[in-house]
Amino acid sequence: MNYYIVTGTSSGIGEAIAKKLIHRKEKVFCISRQINESLKALATKNHSGLWYYQTDLTQTAKLPVIFKEIFSFIDENEVANVVLINNAGTLEPLGKSGSLNTGLIENHFKTNVIAPAILINEFIRLSERLNAKKTIVNISSGAASTPYAGWSNYCAAKSALDMLTRTIGEEQKSKENPVRIFSVAPGIVDTKMQETIRNTNEEQFPMREKFEKLFTENRLSKPDDVADKIISLLFSDFPLTGDVADLRNL
Ligand SMILES: NC(=O)c1ccc[n+]([C@@H]2O[C@H](COP(=O)([O-])OP(=O)(O)OC[C@H]3O[C@@H](n4cnc5c(N)ncnc54)[C@H](OP(=O)(O)O)[C@@H]3O)[C@@H](O)[C@H]2O)c1
Q1: Is residue 248 lining ligand 1, measured as CB closer than 6 Å?
Q2: How many CB atoms lie within 10 A of CB 96?
Q3: What angle do CA 124, 130, 135 make, to 5 degrees?
Q4: Cα of 192 to ligand 1 centre, how many Å?
Q5: How many angstroms separate the CA atoms of 102 and 155, rounded?
Q6: Which of 248, 239, 247, 224 is nearest to 14 (CA)?
Q7: How far is the CA of 93 from the centre of ligand 1 (A)?
C-alpha cells in the first residue's frame, strides 16, 4: 500500500498530483487552507482513500499534531511506500524590499521554509520504524538560484528549501533505512501562481512582461504534465538523495 502526503492541493500542481494519485487508487493526505471539493468527489467516485486537512501551514504548531494523526492511519504491515510532497508555496509579498508588509514576510517564510522543515522532521521521525520505501520531494523553483528583483523572499525561501534538501540528503546517506529526499523545480507552469505574476506591475516585478509573453505564446507547462513527471520520479532512481533537479532537464 502506498501513502502520499501532499501540501497545496487546492489548485495548480498539487491538485494535479493529488488527482493522478486518486486515479491510481493511492491513499492520499491533502493539506491546504481551502478544501478541494472536486478532489473529494473524485475520491468518493473512485472508492479511493482521501483525507483532507484544511490547514494553514503558517500555523506551524499544528503541523506535528496533524502528522501524528496521519501516521496513525498508516498500516505498518501493509505499507510499501510513504511519500511527502512539499508543494504548497506562495509568492506573496511581491515587490521590492522596503515596500513589503512585515506580517506577509513572516507568513512567506513560514509557508515556504518553516512548514516544510517541520514536516520533513516529523516525516523522518515518524517513518523511522516503517519497513517501507520513504521519499520526500520538495517543489523548488529556478528562483532558488537566480535573483529576480521583486521576489527577494521567494528566491531566498526556495534557496533555503534546496539547502535543506542537500543537507538532509547528506544525513540520510549514512542511514540503514534512509529517506530519499530531493528538490525539483517544475519549470513555468500554468497555475494561479502565474496569474499572480501577470497581475503584478513592473514596479513590483520588473520581469513581469517576460512571463506575460510566455503565457500569450502558450509556452507554459500544463499542471497535469508536470504532475505525471513528478510522480514518475518517485519510481525512478534519479534524482538521487540530496539532489536539486530541474524537471526541464530530466
Ligand atoms: N507555477 C509555476 O510556474 C511555478 C514555478 C516554479 C515553482 N513553483 C512552485 O510550485 C508549487 C505549487 O505552486 P502552483 O504553481 O501550483 O501555485 P498555486 O496554484 O498557487 O498553488 C499553491 C498551493 O499552495 C497552497 N498554499 C499556499 N499558502 C498556503 C498556506 N499558508 N497553507 C496551506 N497551503 C498553502 C495553496 O492552497 P490554499 O490557498 O488553499 O491554502 C495552493 O493549493 C509552489 O511551491 C511554487 O513555488 C511553481
Answers
A1: no
A2: 14
A3: 50
A4: 8
A5: 17
A6: 224
A7: 14
H or E stretch at 6: strand 2-7
Q: If you classify domain 2-188+222-249 with CATH, what class do you get?
A: alpha beta
Strand partners, 67: none
Q: Both ends of the chain: CA-CA distance in Å?
A: 27
Please state the domain extents for the chain.
Answer: 2-188+222-249
Q: How many Å lie between the centroid of ligand 1 and the Cα of residue 142?
A: 15
Comparing C-alpha atoms, which of 68, 87, 82 is closest to residue 13?
Answer: 87
Q: Three-state DSSP class for 183?
A: strand
C-alpha cell at 172: 540520510
Tell how far CA 137 is from the center of its chain: 7
In the structure grid, which three cell numbers stand for residue 202, read together? Answer: 513592473
Task: From first to last of the 250 residues of the chain, give the pLDDT tens digit.
Answer: 999 999 999 999 999 999 999 999 999 999 999 999 999 999 999 999 999 999 999 999 999 999 999 999 999 999 999 999 999 999 999 999 999 999 999 999 999 999 999 999 999 999 999 999 999 999 999 999 999 999 999 999 999 999 999 999 999 999 999 999 999 999 999 999 999 999 999 999 999 999 999 999 999 999 999 999 999 999 999 999 999 999 999 9
Q: To test the ligand 1 pocket, which listed residue (137, 193, 210, 225) has its Cβ within 8 A of the most ligand atoms?
A: 193
